[in-house]
Amino acid sequence: MVLRLAERGHLKPERGDVVLFANTSAEHPGTYDFTAKCTELLEQEYALPVFWYEFCTVEDAVGGVYKRKRTYRLVKPVPIEDDPHGYRSRGEVFEEMLSFQSMLPNPHSRSCTAKLKLHPGHALLAEWFSNSDGPAHEGHRKGKSYLNLEATAQTYLQNGGTASAKDYIKSKRYLQSVPTARPKQFWGDFTEAPVSDSRQTAPPLNTPSDINWWSQIERRYRREVPARNGNGISKFGFLGVSGPSYAQIAANNAPIRNRYSQGTPACDCTD
Fold this sequence. Notes:
Elements: H1 2-7, E1 19-22, H2 29-46, E2 50-62, E3 65-79, E4 86-87, H3 92-101, H4 111-128, H5 149-158, H6 165-172, H7 211-221, E5 223-226, E6 233-237, E7 240-241, H8 246-250, H9 258-261
Parallel strand pairs: 1-2, 3-4
Antiparallel strand pairs: 2-3, 5-6, 6-7
Helix pairs in contact: 5-6
């Protein structure tokens, strides 16, 4: 599909269009070969940057306690056995996600899609369209893990966790074997296509491509009712009860709400 879009001129590198491939490290070998060929064609024939990326975690202190947090890294379309910046294909990324969440994905909780593809993809695009030169450094710079798994297990149990402390600690061991930080990366090191200096074009005004259109719709239909606790007014907008409004987002003064800052949209149509 992406090749057809490129052939028909619907993808335009000059406005910042890019193609993404989320590597779970558990793909079929043929998938890697095919995607590498598509990458070469898209970059050489259509000057479209193709970025391969992987879920990863880094370690940092939050409130004086060291924890892992999710992020992503760019990788090259060659095996890591051939290039230290290449992709992983032996399940390493998948296992890191399992260790991070301490549970297996299942039909009722498809966390692998969200954590391995959607969340890191949203974070990548946020940095790409910020006109940065690449993903910024994340994680502490001390070079070794400071995770206290026993203390983490106690917090888990205090919050209602159902696994035993022993099993919980066992599930977290893998995180101590992965890097504590992701170094600064540069877009140009991970694509053979030119990297445009400007990745934003003005959308048609007063259409759904213009955030102000969404702002107007939200103001027109948002419900405002007395809060259940009797304190103030609850506002029901696109981003939840008393969440940031599109007017605030357009003005770049929306309050921080972790759910949206981490890339989870309210629903597909308002992503």
